[in-house]
Amino acid sequence: MLLQQLINGLTLGSVYALIALGYTMVYGIIELINFAHGEIYMLGAYMGIVTFGLLSTLHLISPDSVVALLLMMVVAMLFCGACGVTMERVAYRPLRGASRLSPLISALGVSIFLQNFVMLAQGPRDKGFPNLFAGGGIDLPGARISAIQIFIMATSVMMMIGLQLLVHRTKIGKAMRATAQDMQMACMVGINVDRVISVTFLVGSILAGVAGILVGMYYGLINFFIGYIAGIKAFTAAVLGGIGKIQGAMLGGLLLGLIESLGAGYISSEYKDVFAFAILIVVLIFRPSGLLGEDISKRV
Protein backbone atom coordinates (compact mmCIF):
# COMPACT_ATOMS: atom_id res chain seq x y z
CA MET A 1 0.00 0.00 0.00
CA LEU A 2 2.71 2.49 0.98
CA LEU A 3 4.88 1.67 -2.02
CA GLN A 4 1.91 2.06 -4.37
CA GLN A 5 1.05 5.45 -2.90
CA LEU A 6 4.65 6.55 -3.27
CA ILE A 7 4.63 5.54 -6.93
CA ASN A 8 1.35 7.37 -7.50
CA GLY A 9 2.69 10.42 -5.69
CA LEU A 10 5.89 10.54 -7.74
CA THR A 11 3.86 10.25 -10.94
CA LEU A 12 1.58 13.12 -9.98
CA GLY A 13 4.48 15.11 -8.57
CA SER A 14 6.38 14.83 -11.84
CA VAL A 15 3.52 16.59 -13.62
CA TYR A 16 3.27 19.28 -10.94
CA ALA A 17 7.00 19.86 -11.28
CA LEU A 18 6.73 20.43 -15.04
CA ILE A 19 4.00 23.03 -14.57
CA ALA A 20 5.74 24.64 -11.59
CA LEU A 21 8.89 25.16 -13.66
CA GLY A 22 6.97 27.61 -15.85
CA TYR A 23 5.88 29.60 -12.81
CA THR A 24 9.32 29.74 -11.27
CA MET A 25 11.15 30.62 -14.51
CA VAL A 26 8.87 33.56 -15.26
CA TYR A 27 9.07 34.76 -11.66
CA GLY A 28 12.83 34.41 -11.70
CA ILE A 29 13.12 36.66 -14.76
CA ILE A 30 10.45 39.35 -14.28
CA GLU A 31 9.05 38.62 -10.79
CA LEU A 32 5.56 37.95 -12.15
CA ILE A 33 3.19 35.24 -10.96
CA ASN A 34 1.70 34.12 -14.27
CA PHE A 35 -1.69 32.87 -13.10
CA ALA A 36 -2.64 32.10 -16.71
CA HIS A 37 0.06 29.42 -16.88
CA GLY A 38 -2.38 26.71 -15.78
CA GLU A 39 -4.53 27.46 -18.81
CA ILE A 40 -1.54 26.84 -21.09
CA TYR A 41 -1.36 23.36 -19.56
CA MET A 42 -5.09 22.93 -20.25
CA LEU A 43 -4.60 23.99 -23.88
CA GLY A 44 -1.89 21.36 -24.26
CA ALA A 45 -4.32 18.64 -23.17
CA TYR A 46 -6.97 19.83 -25.64
CA MET A 47 -4.46 20.03 -28.48
CA GLY A 48 -3.66 16.38 -27.78
CA ILE A 49 -7.32 15.46 -28.29
CA VAL A 50 -7.60 17.61 -31.43
CA THR A 51 -4.47 16.05 -32.94
CA PHE A 52 -5.65 12.55 -32.11
CA GLY A 53 -9.00 13.28 -33.71
CA LEU A 54 -7.37 14.53 -36.91
CA LEU A 55 -5.14 11.46 -37.11
CA SER A 56 -8.16 9.20 -36.67
CA THR A 57 -10.16 11.07 -39.30
CA LEU A 58 -7.44 11.27 -41.95
CA HIS A 59 -6.23 7.67 -41.42
CA LEU A 60 -2.68 8.74 -42.25
CA ILE A 61 -1.15 6.70 -39.46
CA SER A 62 -2.49 4.41 -36.78
CA PRO A 63 -3.89 6.66 -34.01
CA ASP A 64 -2.65 4.29 -31.30
CA SER A 65 0.95 4.15 -32.51
CA VAL A 66 4.07 5.70 -31.00
CA VAL A 67 4.22 8.10 -33.93
CA ALA A 68 0.74 9.35 -33.06
CA LEU A 69 1.83 9.98 -29.48
CA LEU A 70 4.91 11.89 -30.62
CA LEU A 71 2.81 13.99 -33.00
CA MET A 72 0.36 14.80 -30.21
CA MET A 73 3.18 15.96 -27.96
CA VAL A 74 4.95 17.96 -30.69
CA VAL A 75 1.75 19.75 -31.73
CA ALA A 76 0.90 20.52 -28.10
CA MET A 77 4.41 21.84 -27.46
CA LEU A 78 4.38 24.07 -30.54
CA PHE A 79 0.88 25.38 -29.90
CA CYS A 80 1.45 26.04 -26.20
CA GLY A 81 4.83 27.64 -26.89
CA ALA A 82 3.21 30.00 -29.40
CA CYS A 83 0.43 30.81 -26.93
CA GLY A 84 2.95 31.55 -24.19
CA VAL A 85 4.96 33.93 -26.37
CA THR A 86 1.79 35.66 -27.60
CA MET A 87 0.54 36.01 -24.03
CA GLU A 88 3.78 37.68 -22.98
CA ARG A 89 3.75 40.14 -25.89
CA VAL A 90 0.09 41.08 -25.67
CA ALA A 91 -0.75 40.91 -21.97
CA TYR A 92 2.51 41.45 -20.09
CA ARG A 93 5.09 43.34 -22.14
CA PRO A 94 3.02 46.56 -22.39
CA LEU A 95 2.66 46.53 -18.59
CA ARG A 96 6.30 45.85 -17.76
CA GLY A 97 6.86 49.33 -16.42
CA ALA A 98 3.56 49.50 -14.55
CA SER A 99 2.89 48.66 -10.93
CA ARG A 100 3.04 45.03 -9.84
CA LEU A 101 -0.75 44.87 -9.57
CA SER A 102 -1.39 45.65 -13.25
CA PRO A 103 0.29 42.55 -14.79
CA LEU A 104 -1.26 40.40 -12.05
CA ILE A 105 -4.75 41.58 -13.02
CA SER A 106 -3.83 41.06 -16.67
CA ALA A 107 -2.79 37.47 -15.88
CA LEU A 108 -6.12 36.77 -14.19
CA GLY A 109 -7.91 38.25 -17.20
CA VAL A 110 -6.00 36.04 -19.62
CA SER A 111 -6.79 33.01 -17.46
CA ILE A 112 -10.54 33.74 -17.50
CA PHE A 113 -10.46 34.47 -21.24
CA LEU A 114 -8.75 31.18 -22.09
CA GLN A 115 -11.09 29.17 -19.86
CA ASN A 116 -14.17 30.62 -21.50
CA PHE A 117 -12.70 30.41 -25.00
CA VAL A 118 -12.07 26.67 -24.63
CA MET A 119 -15.47 26.15 -22.99
CA LEU A 120 -17.22 27.79 -25.96
CA ALA A 121 -15.01 26.09 -28.56
CA GLN A 122 -14.95 22.57 -27.08
CA GLY A 123 -18.01 22.51 -24.84
CA PRO A 124 -18.36 22.48 -21.04
CA ARG A 125 -18.49 18.69 -20.63
CA ASP A 126 -15.60 16.37 -19.89
CA LYS A 127 -13.82 14.93 -22.90
CA GLY A 128 -12.30 11.47 -23.01
CA PHE A 129 -8.57 11.37 -23.66
CA PRO A 130 -7.13 8.48 -25.70
CA ASN A 131 -5.25 5.90 -23.67
CA LEU A 132 -2.21 4.87 -25.67
CA PHE A 133 -0.75 2.77 -22.84
CA ALA A 134 -3.46 0.21 -22.22
CA GLY A 135 -1.94 -2.67 -20.29
CA GLY A 136 1.73 -3.19 -19.60
CA GLY A 137 3.73 -2.26 -16.57
CA ILE A 138 6.01 -3.71 -13.90
CA ASP A 139 4.77 -5.73 -10.92
CA LEU A 140 6.52 -5.11 -7.61
CA PRO A 141 5.94 -6.65 -4.17
CA GLY A 142 2.76 -4.91 -3.02
CA ALA A 143 2.63 -2.44 -5.89
CA ARG A 144 2.46 -2.03 -9.64
CA ILE A 145 3.98 0.60 -11.91
CA SER A 146 1.82 0.94 -14.99
CA ALA A 147 3.24 1.74 -18.42
CA ILE A 148 1.72 5.24 -18.39
CA GLN A 149 3.32 5.96 -15.00
CA ILE A 150 6.71 4.89 -16.30
CA PHE A 151 6.23 7.10 -19.36
CA ILE A 152 5.16 10.12 -17.29
CA MET A 153 8.11 9.90 -14.90
CA ALA A 154 10.63 9.20 -17.66
CA THR A 155 9.34 12.08 -19.81
CA SER A 156 9.34 14.48 -16.86
CA VAL A 157 12.90 13.57 -15.90
CA MET A 158 14.12 14.04 -19.47
CA MET A 159 12.39 17.42 -19.74
CA MET A 160 13.90 18.57 -16.44
CA ILE A 161 17.38 17.45 -17.47
CA GLY A 162 16.93 19.23 -20.79
CA LEU A 163 15.91 22.42 -19.01
CA GLN A 164 18.94 22.26 -16.72
CA LEU A 165 21.22 21.85 -19.72
CA LEU A 166 19.51 24.73 -21.51
CA VAL A 167 19.89 27.08 -18.56
CA HIS A 168 23.47 26.16 -17.60
CA ARG A 169 25.12 25.07 -20.85
CA THR A 170 23.77 27.35 -23.59
CA LYS A 171 24.17 30.99 -24.56
CA ILE A 172 20.49 31.77 -24.12
CA GLY A 173 20.63 30.09 -20.71
CA LYS A 174 23.47 32.39 -19.65
CA ALA A 175 21.44 35.35 -20.90
CA MET A 176 18.46 34.16 -18.84
CA ARG A 177 20.57 33.91 -15.70
CA ALA A 178 22.09 37.34 -16.32
CA THR A 179 18.66 38.89 -16.87
CA ALA A 180 17.34 37.28 -13.70
CA GLN A 181 20.27 38.65 -11.73
CA ASP A 182 20.10 42.24 -13.02
CA MET A 183 17.87 43.14 -15.96
CA GLN A 184 19.22 46.67 -16.33
CA MET A 185 22.84 45.52 -16.36
CA ALA A 186 21.94 42.78 -18.85
CA CYS A 187 20.58 45.45 -21.20
CA MET A 188 23.76 47.51 -20.82
CA VAL A 189 26.01 44.61 -21.85
CA GLY A 190 23.98 43.97 -25.01
CA ILE A 191 21.56 41.22 -23.99
CA ASN A 192 18.20 41.44 -25.74
CA VAL A 193 16.03 41.29 -22.64
CA ASP A 194 12.76 41.15 -24.58
CA ARG A 195 14.01 38.10 -26.47
CA VAL A 196 15.16 36.42 -23.26
CA ILE A 197 11.76 36.95 -21.62
CA SER A 198 9.98 35.60 -24.71
CA VAL A 199 12.20 32.49 -24.66
CA THR A 200 11.43 32.04 -20.97
CA PHE A 201 7.69 32.06 -21.66
CA LEU A 202 8.26 29.76 -24.64
CA VAL A 203 10.14 27.15 -22.63
CA GLY A 204 7.77 27.27 -19.67
CA SER A 205 4.75 26.93 -21.95
CA ILE A 206 6.29 23.96 -23.77
CA LEU A 207 6.76 22.18 -20.45
CA ALA A 208 3.15 22.93 -19.51
CA GLY A 209 1.92 21.58 -22.86
CA VAL A 210 3.75 18.32 -22.28
CA ALA A 211 2.25 18.13 -18.78
CA GLY A 212 -1.23 18.53 -20.29
CA ILE A 213 -0.71 15.53 -22.58
CA LEU A 214 0.65 13.42 -19.72
CA VAL A 215 -2.22 14.20 -17.36
CA GLY A 216 -4.78 13.64 -20.09
CA MET A 217 -3.44 10.14 -20.73
CA TYR A 218 -3.13 9.41 -17.01
CA TYR A 219 -6.68 10.34 -15.95
CA GLY A 220 -8.44 9.78 -19.28
CA LEU A 221 -10.69 12.86 -18.91
CA ILE A 222 -10.10 16.59 -19.32
CA ASN A 223 -12.24 19.73 -19.22
CA PHE A 224 -11.81 23.47 -19.62
CA PHE A 225 -11.36 23.95 -15.85
CA ILE A 226 -8.42 21.60 -15.23
CA GLY A 227 -5.91 24.42 -15.69
CA TYR A 228 -7.18 26.37 -12.70
CA ILE A 229 -6.71 23.66 -10.07
CA ALA A 230 -3.47 22.37 -11.60
CA GLY A 231 -2.14 25.91 -11.83
CA ILE A 232 -2.84 26.63 -8.16
CA LYS A 233 -1.20 23.35 -7.14
CA ALA A 234 1.83 24.01 -9.35
CA PHE A 235 2.11 27.47 -7.82
CA THR A 236 1.98 25.82 -4.40
CA ALA A 237 4.78 23.46 -5.50
CA ALA A 238 6.88 26.40 -6.68
CA VAL A 239 6.39 28.22 -3.37
CA LEU A 240 7.06 25.03 -1.40
CA GLY A 241 10.41 24.47 -3.09
CA GLY A 242 11.36 28.13 -3.31
CA ILE A 243 9.82 30.17 -6.11
CA GLY A 244 12.42 31.52 -8.49
CA LYS A 245 14.60 28.42 -8.21
CA ILE A 246 14.42 25.68 -10.81
CA GLN A 247 15.55 23.00 -8.39
CA GLY A 248 12.95 24.26 -5.92
CA ALA A 249 10.14 23.80 -8.44
CA MET A 250 11.25 20.23 -9.11
CA LEU A 251 11.50 19.40 -5.40
CA GLY A 252 8.25 21.16 -4.55
CA GLY A 253 6.33 19.36 -7.30
CA LEU A 254 7.52 15.93 -6.20
CA LEU A 255 6.84 16.66 -2.53
CA LEU A 256 3.38 17.99 -3.23
CA GLY A 257 2.52 14.92 -5.30
CA LEU A 258 3.68 12.64 -2.49
CA ILE A 259 1.74 14.60 0.13
CA GLU A 260 -1.45 14.45 -1.92
CA SER A 261 -1.09 10.76 -2.67
CA LEU A 262 -0.32 9.76 0.91
CA GLY A 263 -3.10 11.97 2.26
CA ALA A 264 -5.61 10.53 -0.20
CA GLY A 265 -4.50 6.98 0.56
CA TYR A 266 -4.38 7.16 4.34
CA ILE A 267 -6.82 9.94 5.23
CA SER A 268 -9.41 10.65 2.52
CA SER A 269 -9.33 11.14 -1.23
CA GLU A 270 -12.10 13.73 -0.90
CA TYR A 271 -9.65 16.10 0.81
CA LYS A 272 -6.66 15.71 -1.50
CA ASP A 273 -7.04 19.27 -2.82
CA VAL A 274 -7.27 20.57 0.73
CA PHE A 275 -3.84 19.10 1.50
CA ALA A 276 -2.25 21.17 -1.28
CA PHE A 277 -3.80 24.44 -0.15
CA ALA A 278 -3.04 23.70 3.51
CA ILE A 279 0.60 23.18 2.57
CA LEU A 280 0.59 26.54 0.75
CA ILE A 281 -0.75 28.33 3.83
CA VAL A 282 1.72 26.65 6.18
CA VAL A 283 4.70 27.40 3.92
CA LEU A 284 3.70 31.05 3.46
CA ILE A 285 3.37 31.47 7.22
CA PHE A 286 6.43 29.64 8.50
CA ARG A 287 8.85 29.60 5.56
CA PRO A 288 7.77 32.03 2.80
CA SER A 289 11.11 31.59 1.02
CA GLY A 290 10.46 27.87 0.49
CA LEU A 291 12.44 24.78 1.45
CA LEU A 292 15.47 25.71 -0.63
CA GLY A 293 15.22 29.39 0.20
CA GLU A 294 15.65 32.07 -2.43
CA ASP A 295 19.00 33.33 -3.61
CA ILE A 296 18.05 36.78 -4.88
CA SER A 297 21.33 37.22 -6.72
CA LYS A 298 20.79 34.00 -8.69
CA ARG A 299 17.16 33.02 -9.17
CA VAL A 300 17.56 30.94 -12.33
Q: Which terms would index this structure?
A:
300 residues; mainly alpha; ABC transporter involved in vitamin B12 uptake, BtuC; two-stranded antiparallel ribbon
Question: Briefly, what is this?
Answer:
The chain has 300 residues and is mainly α. It has helices spanning 2-30, 37-58, 66-92, 101-122, 147-169, 171-181, 183-188, 193-219, 226-241, 246-266, 272-286, and strands at 127-128, 137-140, 143-146, 221-222.
Average of the residue pLDDT scores: 89
Write down the domain tally. 1
Helix content: over 70%
Share in β-strands: under 5%
* CATH architectural label: Orthogonal Bundle
Report the biggest beta sheet as strand number plus sense, adding barrel if it closes.
Answer: 2 strands, antiparallel
Task: Please characterize this protein's 3D structure.
This protein has one domain (2-286): ABC transporter involved in vitamin B12 uptake, BtuC, CATH 1.10.3470. The strands form two sheets. It has a two-stranded antiparallel ribbon with strand order 1-4. It is mainly alpha-helical and 300 residues long. The relative contact order is 0.21. The protein contains eleven helices and four strands, in the order ααααβββααααβααα. Strand 2 (137-140) and strand 3 (143-146) form a beta hairpin. Helices cover 73% and strands 4% of the residues. The model is unreliable at 295-300 (pLDDT under 50). The longest helix is centred in the first third of the chain and has 29 residues, at 2-30.
Q: How is this fold's topology laid out?
A:
Layout: H1 2-30, H2 37-58, H3 66-92, H4 101-122, E1 127-128, E2 137-140, E3 143-146, H5 147-169, H6 171-181, H7 183-188, H8 193-219, E4 221-222, H9 226-241, H10 246-266, H11 272-286
Antiparallel strand pairs: 1-4, 2-3
Helix pairs in contact: 1-5, 1-8, 1-9, 1-10, 2-3, 2-4, 2-8, 2-9, 3-8, 5-6, 5-8, 6-8, 9-10, 9-11, 10-11
